[in-house]
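TEACHING EXERCISE
Course module: macromolecular assemblies
Task: Read the component lines below, then compare them to the predicted structure of the full complex.
Student: A.B.
Group: 4
Components provided:
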Amino acid sequence: MNNEDYGYDYDYLFKIVLIGDSGVGKSNLLSRFTTNDFNMESKSTIGVEFATRTIEVEGKKIKAQIWDTAGQERYRAITSAYYRGAVGALIVYDISKPSSYENCNHWLTELRENADDNVAVGLIGNKSDLDHLRAVPTDEAKNFAQENQLLFTETSALKSENVDLAFRELITAIYQMVSKHQVDLGDANTQGNAPKGPTISLTPAPNENKKKSANNCC
Amino acid sequence: MDLKQVAVDRYGSRDELVQRGVWRGELYRYADTDKGRGWLWKALIAEEQANNGNQFDKRHQMHVRRLTPPAVPKLTAPLEKPVIELDLRRLNDAELLQPEVQKTLLELMIRVLTIHNWTYKQGFHELLGTIWLQLREPNSTMTVFEKMMEQVVPIFYNETRLAQWEKHIFAPLLKVCSPILHDQLYREGNHTNLLWLLRWTRVLFLRELPMDYVLVIWDHILTGTYPIETLLSGIIVVLLLNVYGELSHPECDDDDLVEILLNYNESVSSLVDSAELCRMGSRLVELWFLQDVNSLRMICNTFLKLRFNVNQVDNNNS
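Instructor-supplied answer key:
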């Protein structure tokens, strides 16, 4: 895997949250994407974890800051902090565990209640290496994703299949929304009108002189 | 020599063992601390239990007439059983993954949840697994687990209480001990510190510190004369002082702070000795109860000066 690491040098910082039931493989998706690691004995997440990776999309360096949360318990005290500033989310289920898929609706509701209206969302059917134990048909999940305007990918963090793709698609979708938002903003300003409707909640890259070479962020 | 041998050779009573051995740190100077902890915990807790009686039995004796046989709680599998099983399977130790150990741990967990009417939360399993590895026997494992959880669950596994603890105990203590770190961690717009405090407190540093180091802290918790909420506050303040340079760096932003504290084991370059950590943490607690602000500040300033040659100067003190 080409781990494009640009360190502190990036154009955009996107905060992405991983949600889904306990044991569906969120932490291993995170480690597969950020460090290309997979841990067979992955521990349960207590509270939250986060990691980052910088990739290039359409010539821009994008730092993805990915937050991983515990699947069993909802922490009211930190839920708002968890979703605050998130511009993307991946709802993860295990293709061999139907209850984890059925709960995606619940996760989507929680996301809609707590995150920005414009947050880009992907549905991930993880553990595709367990195809012999498949309990969630691909088409069913694909339809659910279409109905709810979600990106959809089946992944295997274990075999490193489609993990990069899933994150890249999401990051690209966010980037395109941001670009469009900037164009809209530009048009609106040209016409002397303030932009209407919900805006993308983008976390501005902090400490410009330290971490940024160029700031194209709105 | 292992902990058992040193304890037997040097101390005539449980109180001596607790006061001098554990709290003054003598035990850790003379013993090989990764051997004999199971015996130590049995010695520390069994005698206490013998003096006080089992809390559960006592509670029931108060409500049940003598002629009535003691009520035995009916064990029912909690709704969280699948999550418990999943979590137990994710314990990162070959011995804990043995089928018979898994079965015992599940039974113990369900028993404790039923007796105390607790809802299972992730983190319980790591505490139980760690205790099992020291004792390797169901009865004493359950005794120590209950002793630990009776302190931890009501505060750190209750979100409201956890937030109150942070607001009314931890943050004020940190502010007195290190206004600079306090201001850094409580800057307006920062992520809530519960993001990292939640894990630090719920699994009692298992994710942040080396195992042998954690077990010394647990010795203190299990023999504590201080309320756990204040003792942990003191210990956490010392652990934060231990990464003072990283946390107070002018370019350390909101996300960096959370990253450092969620990856404490990777962030820390030189860790204060575990017995010293507990001694200083408990000293902070004593001074906090006495509201001796000057001494609290002085201890922390001295710690920073001696360990890192840092002069902690703040607006209140300059």
